[in-house]
Description:
By secondary structure, this protein is α/β, with parallel strands linked by helices. Helices cover about 30% and strands about 20% of the residues. The chain has a 10-stranded mixed sheet with strand order 6-13-7-8-12-9-11-10-14-15, with helices on both faces. The chain has a 7-stranded mixed sheet with strand order 29-30-26-25-24-31-32, with helices on both faces. Strands 16-21-20-19-22-23 form a 6-stranded mixed sheet, with helices on both faces. Helix 15 (about 565-575) crosses helix 24. The longest helix is centred in the last third of the chain and has 27 residues, at about 755-785.
Amino acid sequence: xxxxxxxxxxxxxxxxxxxxxxxxxxxxxxxxxxxxxxxxxxxxxxxxxxxxxxxxxxxxxxxxxxxxxxxxxxxxxxxxxxxxxxxxxxxxxxxxxxxxxxxxxxxxxxxxxxxxxxxxxxxxxxxxxxxxxxxxxxxxxxxxxxxxxxxxxxxxxxxxxxxxxxxxxxxxxxxxxxxxxxxxxxxxxxxxxxxxxxxxxxxxxxxxxxxxxxxxxxxxxxxxxxxxxxxxxxxxxxxxxxxxxxxxxxxxxxxxxxxxxxxxxxxxxxxxxxxxxxxxxxxxxxxxxxxxxxxxxxxxxxxxxxxxxxxxxxxxxxxxxxxxxxxxxxxxxxxxxxxxxxxxxxxxxxxxxxxxxxxxxxxxxxxxxxxxxxxxxxxxxxxxxxxxxxxxxxxxxxxxxxxxxxxxxxxxxxxxxxxxxxxxxxxxxxxxxxxxxxxxxxxxxxxxxxxxxxxxxxxxxxxxxxxxxxxxxxxxxxxxxxxxxxxxxxxxxxxxxxxxxxxxxxxxxxxxxxxxxxxxxxxxxxxxxxxxxxxxxxxxxxxxxxxxxxxxxxxxxxxxxxxxxxxxxxxxxxxxxxxxxxxxxxxxxxxxxxxxxxxxxxxxxxxxxxxxxxxxxxxxxxxxxxxxxxxxxxxxxxxxxxxxxxxxxxxxxxxxxxxxxxxxxxxxxxxxxxxxxxxxxxxxxxxxxxxxxxxxxxxxxxxxxxxxxxxxxxxxxxxxxxxxxxxxxxxxxxxxxxxxxxxxxxxxxxxxxxxxxxxxxxxxxxxxxxxxxxxxxxxxxxxxxxxxxxxxxxxxxxxxxxxxxxxxxxxxxxxxxxxxxxxxxxxxxxxxxxxxxxxxxxxxxxxxxx
Length: 850
């Protein structure tokens, strides 16, 4: 039985039991229930369970009714309630008081784990109050703030199952912990200077340094030294952002030559002095999540920024800013004073390696490697590494876009059922006119290769991990394996199926097969490809699109999910839709059903299946995957496509590749199709355009060329070209093909005419958006579908996204964009979950009964 309590009033006491599901552990929910019950003069108990929260309350029916209403209308600040159910129970004679019970030990299930959050205003006031016993205590926290996910070792969430287990509370802390009227009532990480972990400043050998650690740390930063600082989910490296020499030394030590570095500033006002922040960005910046906000720099400080912050974020029009979110951060900024400079606050690791989390690693991987001059650490262990979340401020119309889900956002649960908003538990879903079970057996989704995340599926919900990084690096892959094991154990999931990318060479795919063998799951010889094209047809003629055949997969199977189908399915899942929609999927690469590399796709999509209806005209890339780094190869491929076989002799090619031998070798590879891969990737088109314009000849980090292209377009200041150079769109082999060759020729012409590079970069974006809009218009005419999804990492580009969305919406189409998970590969695991769950549901529905 569920719903609001509507019991008749009786004279004798009644007893009711409630089960509360959602993010209700580690957020002060039990103390909240205790206060609520006391206010209504009820007796009973509350305790954590592996699945959530169990409440028993006894008293007059009218008071129980008021208690139920209050329970549904209010909750602690960090709680996220998904469902509340109730049932009647046997009254307990002569029961006295309301008790918080010890957590249930049954580990057959596990409730949601709360993410780590920033210090709350109350703790911040205590931190600054000389009369408070936690004055200047760098690890102060309460039920409304502090570490959660990074300290939990098991569920239910109680102190013995956290990394605080080794710190016995002093008498004063224990009294607060036991008193329902305090903020630290059953706050598991609570501590004070007398009984809790301690913060200290040490040199590069681990020897403690004399003096107040915060005063000394701030002085060293002010002098231009690099400080390693232990935060919630790992160490940061901090240095003055306005000290060019110090920033250069940090970059050299980290082996991170060009990738932008995040800034931590003292307060919101300091952030607004650097960047333009929309209202949603301002709210998020100061929220408990406290993410890094990527925002456009203020035009009036461009010259000062280049002078003061040289080396922080070259080649981009944005800065990444965040506020202090731990007590230690606040204490350091307090010591730096009112004129505190922005600090570079970047992950403490070598480029693309996992975060350093423990003190021994800080000495061996940071200090010994010369990455820091001193270390500010504490002795509270970190159970798992987690980086800072990153949100992109796309402006007041487009809002915030997740780029990296990590601290404050992960782990996070997302409902799988179509037609239900997040937080609503489904019973059934629909495929066509048929109802099918909406909750598959427990599963594991291993994501992609770059910007990796993994997910577990249980009870019709997806639990998405934190950002894990690039699996092509050995240490990152080791962290990926640990994260998989950790998520399965923490959420008590025993997978009956595994979903993975269809690329046969991704590390995540290979690991999926290894796990399948270990767990005895069925491994198909060939994974299903529901989007494999049928016979060529006439794309200009209307057609009826049915759901392609879903491959036979069963519980206990390994399921391959096409990369771009997963992107689109993630978008469907976060919007609670089944489909079909038309999805424009733009990224750098993904293994296609025809064995080529895809990445500029127009797909008819449901969760269960997809059909490729259009795409960018594929490029032949000399050297294959090497073109993802060496953008000149992409540019030469674009010139060859636009100008023909003699492109290698064109002045633009000679300027691009001055070395005659190298240019001729690449030209020969293109002419003969030797050591080339075929790619429709939109990201490769951005790479080539950036090289042609002289903006980026080498991607030193993923999507660098796209970043500098957007930054150059931003500098055009609204100047437009009269020429269109529109892409050619026509039917090829039964699909619409977008040929950008006219735009390539236009760039060459523009350069020859002396058109400023920023104007050409802006024109490139606008013409690309117009080309996609024209292709969408043709497919809308065929299918009648009027909902368009924009997904894939290229849609982190604000200009392209805004232009395309505006055109489509002006034509009366509904545009879906991401708001819960990143459009890049950080959302792939969610998409794999949506696809696998729907296919398994369809199979069970179609299975004949005996």
